[in-house]
Design goal:
Blueprint: H1 2-7, H2 10-29, H3 36-47, E1 51-52, H4 53-60, H5 64-76, E2 80-85, E3 88-93, H6 95-98, H7 101-119, H8 121-139
Antiparallel strand pairs: 1-3, 2-3
Helix pairs in contact: 2-7, 4-5, 7-8
Organism: Paenibacillus glucanolyticus
Protein name: MarR family transcriptional regulator
Pfam families: MarR_2 (PF12802)
Length: 142
Amino acid sequence: MLNTYIKECLYFTANRLSRVITKMAEDEFAVSGLSPTYAYLLMAVYEKEGISQKELGEILHLQPSTVTRLIEKLAVKGLVYNRVEGRMSLIYTTDKGKALEEVIHECWNHLRSRYGAILGNAEGDELSLRLYEVSDQLENKD
């Protein structure tokens, strides 16, 4: 009976998947010297220099306090800086941060290749998109 509860519980299976994929991502991003979350934040800044903290939170689905903490730690490492314009805090990469861009993209590609080798590239992409859609549905249940 417990086996059925576990296999049919979205909470349990999603957490199990999270642990497995987090380990893979941490392994692949280790070469960058950053955790995957920091690397994804940097990827968003590469995409849009001068991005607001609010927009970063929306893109990464993180609370404002979490985004602030991540930016502060990246600033201490000398990878980003923020410029305040009015009430907005805009985030930019430093030269040191820009120098990591290629490495971070390689890490991301290696992660996708790693789980793609196990699941198949198409299935990995489909699963990612489906999980994103389901997350949106559950998050926007109101």
